[in-house]
Specification:
Length: 297
Amino acid sequence: MRGRSTPRGPLTTAREQQKSTAMKTEWIDANRANWDERVPVHLAAKSYDLTALRAGQGRLHTIEEEELGNIAGLRVLHLQCHFGRDSLTLAQRGAEVVGLDFSAPAIDAARGLARELCLSRRARFVLANVYDARDALPEAAAFDLVYVTWGAIYWLPDIRRWAQIVAHYLRPGGTLYLAEGHPSALVFDDLARAADAKMPGWFAPYFQSEPMVIDDARDYANADVVLTHRRQYSWMHPLGSIISALRDAGLSLAWLHEHAAVPWPMFDCLVAGDDGMYRWPAQQWLPLAFSLRATSR
Ligand SMILES: C[S@@+](CC[C@H](N)C(=O)[O-])C[C@H]1O[C@@H](n2cnc3c(N)ncnc32)[C@H](O)[C@@H]1O
């Protein structure tokens, strides 16, 4: 899949081309249906509690709270904003925010919340696939900060195109803040766990470029839910590929942090802390998350 933007040679058969075109929409359609279904689940989930946001005091996760700094007065583009909880939190802190997501129920919910919280003038929401963002949001070099967190890039096939989108929207000197599940942890999954094992099993090779295509009825925010739209396409993006993609798109790395905690129960064996973060039960064998800041040159 990652190679699909490579020019095709004359030996490409009509059948191969058909397969490639079908694949292009298949992953979007499947992932969108999956995310559409999760929106009402998440709106009702404890881990997406909106009480603080409704009280005017939305909180981000511990990692972003420690790293993000003052955003008052900044123009922020929040890619893959889901139903806008974090976007609206950023708006409450004085940023002017545009959230973008390809899920219509997510964007509807985000707009509804913005109205409810009287934040519609500070927070606007755009319905689009990240890769089509330039058409939906024609505001090149208009943002001080592009904000991308937790469970975003994993759903995207081409990390280099993603980095170009980020670069497209940043003004010179503007920054990307990215916080994500660590790719070395994503090598594992509970789906590959042996029946008697506590730890997740080997799931996807770190350097796999083909999509991981799974049918998974679970949702990380509600253990009781059984999803109908189970098909999911996701991609491994090694840390080196992410950093190289950003550098090649014209961004300079300011810092990179690896974390022994992640804000969702990535594996059943992780232990929830009082800070709302999840950690390995004993030894911190591998990082669970990473975050970075990169500046547009
Ligand atoms: C785990 S959520 C991200 C949560 C986010 N950190 C937040 O602020 O709540 C992943 C989001 O990515 C969106 N998404 C996945 N693939 C996308 C794509 N190709 N284009 C736009 N949005 C996408 C989904 O609709 C979903 O809302």
